[in-house]
Each structure stands twice: as C-alpha cells, then as structure tokens.
Amino acid sequence: MSEGEITPIQKTIDIVKTLNSRGIVNAICSRNTFEDTKERLEQLGIWDDFVFPRIAWAPKGPLIQDIIEKIQLRPETVLFIDDNVTNLNEAKHFVPKLNVAEPDIIETLLDDPRLVGKPDPDLSRLKRYQVLETKQNDMSASGGDNEAFLRKSDIRVSFHADVEAEFPRIHDLVNRTNQLNFTKNRWPEDIEEARLRFQEEVEADFDTDVGYVKVADAYGNYGICGFYLSRKNEFHHFLFSCRTMNMGVEQFVWRKLGERHVPIQGKVGSKLEAPVVDWITVVDDVDKSSSEDNSNGKRLQVCIRGACDMMMTSNFLRTKVNTLEELNYAYEGWEIIASPRFVALCKDMKDERNREIVARLPGIPPNRFETDVLAETSDVYVFSFSQESFHGLYQSKTTGMIIPMGHFGLPYHLPGGPKDKFDYTAVTYDALLKFGVEDVSEDQWNFFRNEFTFLGGFQKDIFLRDLRYMFNRLLNAQKRVIIIGLNQSVGRDQKLLEFFGEINGLVRPLATKYGFDYIDMGDVLKTEDGLAKDGMFGGAHFDRPVYKALSDRILNLLQSVH
Predict the structure, then answer these.
(1) Is 322 exposed, middle or buried (0-12, 13-18, 19+ CB in 10 A)?
(2) Helices 460-476 & 340-348, crossing angle to 10 degrees?
(3) R_g over Cα of the chain
(4) Helices 167-176 and 191-203, packing angle to 10 deg
(5) 3-class secondary-structure state, position 483
(6) Terminus of the chain with fewer CB atoms < 10 Å: N or C?
(7) 4-16: burial string, b at 16+ Cβ within 10 Å, e else
(8) How many CA atoms lie within 13 A of 146 on its CB side?
(9) CA distance 511 to 468
(10) Phi and psi for 103 in degrees, rounded to 5?
(11) Phi, psi of 229, rounded to the nearest 5 degrees
C-alpha cells in the first residue's frame, strides 16, 4: 500500500472466509501504516475476517511472536505466509516451531490436510478470538496489569454434572487440549468407544467425582472450557481450554474442588498453586446468570458433616453453594469421623485432665475437636449419621470421658453386625505391630490400654444425648438444619440395614421435634440399581444419580433459606 493502490484478489479473499468457516482463524502481519491498511480492508468488507493484526514498520519476527503469545496457540498449529524469505527465517528464529511458506502455497491451501478444520458456519471460533483480542487490547490500555484487569472482567464459572449430555464437546476437550491439560489421559477418537471408556472410568470407584466447567466474563460466554474426573482424592482428568488461559480459572477450580492431587503429565502452561484467585464468581449457570444475580457474597455457606454419602453429595453441592465440609478422613492410619460424639466431647475438653489424656493418645490430629457446629459460622447444617456403625467406644477410668477409636489396620466389621466391635484394649503392643499399625509408641499404646475401658459398639443413650446437645446448640443459634436419613431398605446386608433403620428411628422423631428438615433416603433410592457397583450391596455407597438426586433435594430446601 505504501507503493500505490492494491488490486484485491477475490479468490484469496474467499480462501480467508473459507478458512474462518472451518474454524481456522486468520491474522495479519504486515509492514504498513496501520490506519491506512485498516481503512482499505474495511472498504473491501474483510477487516473483521482477521484477528490480532500486527501492522507496523517493524521487524516481523517479534510481531509474529507477539501474535502467537496473545492468541494463545502453540506455534506448531500456526502457518506464516510471506513473500520474503528473510521474513520467514526471521520469524522461525523468534518462533522455532512455527510453520512457514511462500505465497505459492495459497493455490493449494484449502486442500492442505493440516487446514481441513471442522465446520463452523456460525464463525464461533473467529468470534471467540475477537473477544480475546478485545480483552488483550483492554488489558494493554489498563497498563498491562493482568490481575487488575481480571478483577474488572466479571469472570464467572458454573459447574455441571450432565457430562453425557455434552459428551461430544467433552470428548473434544479431552483429546485436543494440551497447554492446560494437566493429566493428558486421552480417550479413543471414536466417540462411541470414548463413551464406553468414560463409563469405565466413572464406575471404577463409587467415590468418582466428575463434571465440566463453563466460563463467561464481561466480554462474552466461552461455553464449556473445563473437565475433571477424580477418584480417591486424585484427578484422572483435569483440563481446560486454552481460551481461559491467564484468567485464573484452572487455579480457582482446583481450589474449589478441594486441591485434590493432580498427577501432571508433560508440559503445562500454568501452575495450580499460584495465583490464589479471588476474582472469579461461581454462578448456577453462566448461560443464564450474571455475577450480579449470584455473587459470592449472596451464596449460602453450608456445613456438611458425615461419611461417604456426604462426601459424594458435597461434590454436587459445592458447585452451587459455599461448603464447609466436615467429613471422614484418614490420619496416620486412624479413621477420623464426624460423629455427634466429637461435638459433645468439646464439653469434656474443658477439663484439663481430659486434655492431658487426649494428648497422650495415638491418632488424634491437631484441631480434632473443632467443628463449625460450635463455631456457628454457616447458614445451614446438613448431617448424616451412617458413621455411627464405624467405631468402638472407650471410657476413661479417670474422668469418665467416652471417645470413639478406629484404625484401618485393625479388625473393623465383626460377624455380629455393626454393633459388634473389636476390643482394642485386648491387643498387646506386639500384636498391634503385627496388624501393621505404625506411628504408635509402646508408651502410647500401654497408656491407652490401661486408661480406657471398652464399652462396645453403638450406645443408644450416648447417641441421643450427643444429638440433643448438638441440636440444642443449633436451635438456639437459629440455624437451618437438614438431616439425611439412612438407607434401611435397599441392599443385601440385612444387619446393616436393620442398624440404619434403628438410627433413623432415633433421629427422625428428634428432627421433627426440633423442627429440622429430614430427607428420607427411601424417596431417593428405590432399587439395587441405585447402589454403587462395589460389591457391598448396601450401606451409604450409591450410584452418582442417587447422590445427584439427594443434592437436588437439599438445594430445593435451601431455596427457602433466604
């Protein structure tokens, strides 16, 4: 243009438009005056067919490098065409993995197998990159402070569980993402084979948590941008589209899902530990909501306390409300449970003698007796009591304090049923070591055996006394409470079903008396098809649709809290 009038070539213009319709975007790197070039291309009606134009009297190598960085693509997926070999070599120097070609490639460009693309008649990919370009320009105008810019960008995410309904997009994410694919566990290219693989991954363990993430901000809606699948607190899939690059989405989601372990494979373009993101808002659905409707400040905080059933239900709840999870976990081989006994034990901890006794016991982690039931910071409390079948009870000979104890290495379920518990005080230290119990000194164990008397398993009177203490605290604090009933009818472990029926018979009348909500598991779980495929045939291990239905019932009750 600096040397005179240009002659448009319609065939080349058509190639640009065809590539856009295939989801392959076009950029400009040209030595010219920006405003003159923009004006001429606008006259031809094709200025908006390009993104990230770099038009300046400057070396092309750095300009090409800047385009690729801003457009957030891998150099291997970019082709640079120029009629000057020096420009091509310079670009390769700055971006070694870049594809380059001279203009004679244009004649066969649409037949090149690398440029087949995928049908995109609505030009959705071009529009996404135009949004990205606008964001980049606005960030530059704000002085280049990315975090300050992000805080003004009104970034929103929503979590969704209906993976099967969106499987083609999820399939594409799993197999095509690289820069923000932390796990890189691919599926077969054939989508039906991929569905089968996905089902195998979901059914591999009852505690599988799986979902996808949608993202939007002030500039537009980016659709489904993330996918995760975890089991036993480790991600098997954790990945995001590069369209969310540098927004903090992957860090935010990782922390929102509980900072589970991510076995990172290959190179990734982000670190999960930093930054700590506080500029993203969770909404119910980014397609239907804005942050003004669903700000974090308005979201309920729900304390969820219980065992396996609550752990899986919380996977669904935490994407809709702010959750504070008091769930069972392992500590040096000991099972730490969230039973009412440990809430009531806070009264015993006021006695210095009890604090000294507890300090000498094994398996007591720091902050063992802290609970939000007593701190009262949550708006709503959701309880399940399946863990009452877990531990034996032991009473201090000095003070009368009663404490549950349970270790994964010691006998757990005895033939007599849930109330038939193994007496730990009958185990010598040498026998303890043979069971594989570690991190317990001989002095600790002998102190435990001499100080405590074994009371047996579940004790109705103790349980009711602890429940009343906990319920009275919450009632006086005017807190909303939701009780999850236990499965007492579906399965084959009759002794466990009978025990769960006994627990329900104690809890439900008390919940009614206190005016608390009660969800009957019989309304959610109908047949053995709803049980987890783990061979247990009962208990609190269910299939994902049951946990989803349970969380939906809880969320329906929460709608009336405000």
Answers:
(1) middle
(2) 80
(3) 30
(4) 90
(5) strand
(6) C
(7) eeeeeeeeeeebb
(8) 8
(9) 10
(10) -60, -20
(11) -150, 120
Q: Do the strands 322-327 and 392-396 form a parallel or antiparallel pair, or are they unpaired?
A: unpaired
Q: How far apart are CA 179 and CA 57, in angstroms?
A: 32
HSE value, Cβ hemisphere, 13 Å, CA-based, for 187: 26
Instruction: Point out which residues pair with 228 in neighbouring strands.
Output: 211, 238
Look at residue 233 and give its three-state secondary structure. coil
Whether 555 contacts 317, CB under 8 Å: yes
Contact between 525 and 546 under an 8 Å Cβ cutoff? The reply is yes
pLDDT value, residue 296: 46
DSSP per residue, 86-129? HHHHHHHHHSTT-EEE-GGGGGGGGG-GGG-----TT-HHHHHH
Tens-place pLDDT, residues 60-71: 999 999 999 888
- Beta 209-217 vs 220-231: how paired, if at all? antiparallel
Q: Which of 292, 215, 202, 222 is nearest to 256 (CA)?
A: 215
Instruction: Label residue 430 by pLDDT band (50, 70, 90).
Output: very high
Write the DSSP assignment of 344-358 as a string of letters: HHHHHTTSHHHHHHH
Query: Is the distance from CB of 186 to CB of 176 less than 8 angstroms?
Result: no
With a CB cutoff of 8 Å and minimum separation 6, the contacts of 20 are 26, 49, 120, 123, 125, 126
Q: Which of 291, 144, 160 is nearest to 216 (CA)?
A: 291
H or E segment at 380? strand 380-384
Burial class (CB in 10 A: 0-12, 13-18, 19+), 358: middle
Distance CA 70, CA 138 (A): 13
* β-bridge mates for residue 181, sequence order: 239
201/186 Cα distance (integer angstroms): 12
Q: How far apart are CA 561 and CA 505, in angstroms?
A: 27
Over the range 257-271, which residues count as b (16 or more CB within 10 Å of their CB) and which as e? beeeebeeeeebbbe
- Per-residue pLDDT band for 188 (boundaries 50, 70, 90) equals very high
H-run or E-run covering 484: strand 480-484
Give CA–CA dist 49/131, Å, rounded: 13
> Which has the minimum average pLDDT: 87-91, 216-220, 337-341, 382-386?
216-220
Tokens of 313: 């239900």
- Crossing angle of the two packed helices 308-317 and 544-558, in degrees rounded to 10: 60
For the whole prediction, is pTM greater than 0.85? Answer: no
Cα 233 to chain centroid, rounded: 10
